[in-house]
């Protein structure tokens, strides 16, 4: 039977906890009358229990030596100095020196002069572009007017020549004028001349 049902390990402090719980419940039930039933054994038990608790606390939280406390203070002081140094490095002084003020004024003046020069150059470039555009359109319009005038003169000369051609001689003589400078068959030219003379008489 022992092999089938092995012994169960029960923590040793379980009995002490049960005793404490029992005494606490009894004291709560009796209230003020519990003092009448207190014995010397109860005081000894409570004193031993208190000493055990103090011993257990000291084991869990050992006393800190002065050296460790001093090292902790030194470490905190070192961290504080590093933080102050970092803040001083990242936060420049609020008051500027005369050299910095002079440099800042000179830098702002250079920026202002550069901006003014850029604005002036931009204005001059726009004015030059506007003038060149006006000149281009003026020349374009003049050339266009000249071409229109030339076309009109050529048209007028062509019409005058055409009218003069139709008013001179007869149809045969006009036909002869059209072919006399070309490489036409001589026999054809002779025929046109004969027709022109016959019509004119």
Automatic annotation (TrEMBL):
Annotated localization: Cytoplasmic vesicle membrane; Membrane, Coated pit
UniProt key word Membrane: yes
UniProt region (Disordered), positions on chain: 32-106
Protein name: Clathrin light chain
Cited function: Clathrin is the major protein of the polyhedral coat of coated pits and vesicles.
UniProt KW keywords: Coated pit, Cytoplasmic vesicle, Membrane
Skewed-composition ranges (Basic and acidic residues): 32-58, 95-106
Any Gene Ontology biological process: clathrin-dependent endocytosis
Membrane-protein topology: Peripheral membrane protein
PANTHER family linked to this entry: CLATHRIN LIGHT CHAIN
Domain of life from the UniProt record: Eukaryota
Pfam families xrefs: Clathrin_lg_ch (PF01086)
Protein family (similarity comment): Belongs to the clathrin light chain family.
GO terms assigned for molecular function: clathrin heavy chain binding; structural molecule activity
GO cellular component, one term: clathrin coat of coated pit
InterPro entries: Clathrin_L-chain
Start-end of Acidic residues biased regions: 75-86
